[in-house]
């Protein structure tokens, strides 16, 4: 009798343990299912976020392209023809300046127009600190030997700038700017008027890909005085 009671007692304990085990497993299953659901929901949100980003990128790209096309077709042939009247008229028009800069990039000589633009901005400076900082930046970028975009200047002009750069004035680059302007007017401008970039504008043709040509060397201002304006040295 005692043995029987002990057997049933042990059996009840086993059943209780089994129930507890199944309850625990069932609960764990629910917890695991909940975790999986959260992971799937997070993945879905991530995919949705990526999709939205792609759509926004597509819209931005489309808007950018549309704006770029509008910019390309903004210049009328009549306006472009006026740029052929003088170099001054070309640079005074925003689109003319942009077209000429694009042309200089095909010749790897855009440093000239960038220096000229930097000088125009520099001359508007009023505060001493601003004058000093901008003068230093222009000198290091365009004037000093082995500058990243060094422009071609005669020794005397460069030497005067080098000696005055510690105490710059709003007009310390005037001589250099004038020489670079003359070089562009007598050399680059004449080739620009014969280029596809300009001819396409005056004939109303759409913009075409431009071919880049590497110069064998650049003219200095002193060298250029003895060279005809329609002569260039190329590889």
UniProtKB/TrEMBL annotation:
Gene transcribed to yield this protein: RGS18
Organism of this sequence: Sapajus apella (Brown-capped capuchin)
PANTHER family attached to this UniProt entry: REGULATOR OF G PROTEIN SIGNALING, REGULATOR OF G-PROTEIN SIGNALING 18
InterPro entries the UniProt entry points to: RGS, RGS_sf, RGS_subdom1/3, RGS_subdomain_2
GO biological process per UniProt: negative regulation of signal transduction
Keywords: Signal transduction inhibitor
SMART domains registered for this protein in UniProt: RGS
Example of a GO MF term: GTPase activity
Coiled coil is among the record's keywords: no
SUPFAM superfamilies for this protein: Regulator of G-protein signaling, RGS
The protein's name in its UniProt record: Regulator of G-protein signaling 18
Residue ranges occupied by any RGS domain in the UniProt entry: 86-202
Domain of life: Eukaryota
Keyword Thylakoid: no
Gene3D superfamilies membership: 1.10.196.10, Regulator of G-protein Signalling 4, domain 2
PROSITE patterns xref list: RGS
């Amino acid at each position: 009798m005692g043995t029987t009671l002990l057997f049933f007692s042990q059996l009840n304990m086993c059943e209780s343990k089994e129930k507890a085990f199944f309850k625990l497993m069932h609960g764990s299953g629910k917890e695991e299912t909940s975790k999986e659901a959260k992971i799937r929901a997070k993945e879905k949100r991530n995919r949705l976020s990526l999709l939205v980003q792609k759509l926004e990128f597509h819209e931005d790209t489309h808007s950018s392209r549309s704006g770029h096309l509008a910019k390309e077709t903004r210049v009328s042939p009549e306006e472009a023809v006026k740029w052929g009247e003088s170099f001054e008229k070309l640079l005074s028009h925003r689109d003319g300046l942009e077209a000429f800069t694009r042309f200089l990039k095909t010749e790897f000589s855009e440093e000239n127009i960038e220096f000229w633009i930097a000088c125009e901005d520099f001359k508007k400076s009023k505060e001493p600190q601003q004058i000093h900082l901008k003068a230093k930046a222009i000198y290091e970028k365009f004037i000093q030997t082995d500058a990243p975009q060094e422009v071609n200047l005669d020794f005397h002009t460069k030497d005067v700038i080098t000696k005055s750069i510690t105490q710059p004035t709003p007009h310390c680059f005037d001589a250099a700017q004038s020489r670079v302007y003359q070089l562009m007017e007598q050399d680059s401008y004449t080739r620009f008027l014969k280029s596809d970039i300009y001819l396409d504008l005056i004939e109303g043709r759409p913009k075409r890909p431009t071919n880049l040509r590497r110069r064998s060397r650049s003219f200095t201002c002193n060298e250029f005085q003895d060279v005809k304006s329609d002569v260039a040295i190329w590889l």
